[in-house]
Specification:
This protein has nine helices and seven strands, in the order H-H-H-H-E-E-E-H-E-E-H-H-E-E-H-H. With about 260 residues, the chain is of the alpha+beta class. Strands 1, 2, 3, 4, 5, 6 and 7 form a seven-stranded antiparallel sheet that branches. It is globular.
Length: about 260
């Protein structure tokens, strides 16, 4: 049979075709096939991943420059004196996340200061014994420079984290001594109407006592993903927070763009 007419159906042509495919797969770098695995998992063979401490500094930077986050609590399993509202049945154990104001205030800047409103669902749940999670994400400034590609400012590539802990009231004397009013209302001037002692709603100063930190710095091939020890979180200095820059901030530097 003429090879020009039988095409792929000729035995010799089939053999050559499969040998060519085998040769092609043998010369493709294995890293190309494995690369997608690195997106969601840290790989020790990659050198550019920030350390746990560097990630803690970045997280503290976000805490410092942001002021709004998602406060998550869990509805109590049974009726509780702190819960005075008409709720649907069978909410026990169900989580709920709501936006809330916070501020990073001295002298304990690593534990977010919150203006707790007693009537709010989050604080009713907290008073009933719920643990609390405060979830934050980094928002690049509006005037950030252009990205290298479509992933530079992708939300999936930007850092976010959750602070796990519990709500602790701040005594009024401590709040006055440390200027909590001044710190908080500088970030949230509209919240003055709900300051403790107002005539609208009962409110009180509180802090989130941070016990665990879970961090996602971005894609796993270029950022740390995992837990940050609370000692690392607390040990970050004010100087480190002020000196570090996140992607898109003025002064941000990379190895490729020093």
């Amino acid at each position: 049979m003429n090879l020009l007419h039988c095409g792929i159906h000729c035995p010799y042509v089939k053999t050559i075709y499969w040998l060519a495919l085998l040769l092609l797969y043998s010369i493709i770098p294995t890293t190309a096939a494995q690369k997608p695995q690195y997106i969601l998992a840290n790989d020790p063979r990659l050198n550019a991943i920030p350390t746990v401490h560097e990630s803690a500094v970045q997280a503290r930077r976000i805490l410092n420059i942001s002021s709004i986050a998602t406060l998550s609590t869990v509805f109590p399993e049974q009726a509780h004196p702190a819960i005075l509202e008409n709720r649907p049945p069978d909410l026990g154990g169900v989580p709920i996340g709501l936006i809330d104001y916070y501020a990073s205030c001295d002298p304990i800047a690593y534990e977010p200061t919150i203006l707790a409103i007693s009537i709010a669902t989050s604080f009713k749940n907290a008073r009933a014994g719920s643990n609390v999670t405060l979830s934050l994400r980094y928002h690049p400034p509006f005037d950030h420079p252009p990205g290298d590609d479509i992933y530079t400012y992708s939300p999936a590539n930007l850092p976010r984290f959750s602070l796990v802990g519990h709500i602790e009231p701040v005594p009024a004397s401590e709040a006055r001594q440390n200027g909590i009013d001044r710190c908080f209302f500088k970030r949230h001037p509209d919240a003055v109407a709900w300051r403790p002692g107002n005539t609208i709603h009962e409110s009180w100063w509180a802090r989130l006592v941070v016990e665990q930190i879970y961090w996602i710095g971005g894609f796993g091939d270029r950022a740390y993903i995992g837990w940050i020890p609370v000692e690392e979180w607390r040990g970050v200095t004010r100087e480190e927070v002020e000196a570090t820059r996140l992607i898109g901030e003025h002064g941000y530097k990379t190895d490729e763009n020093p």
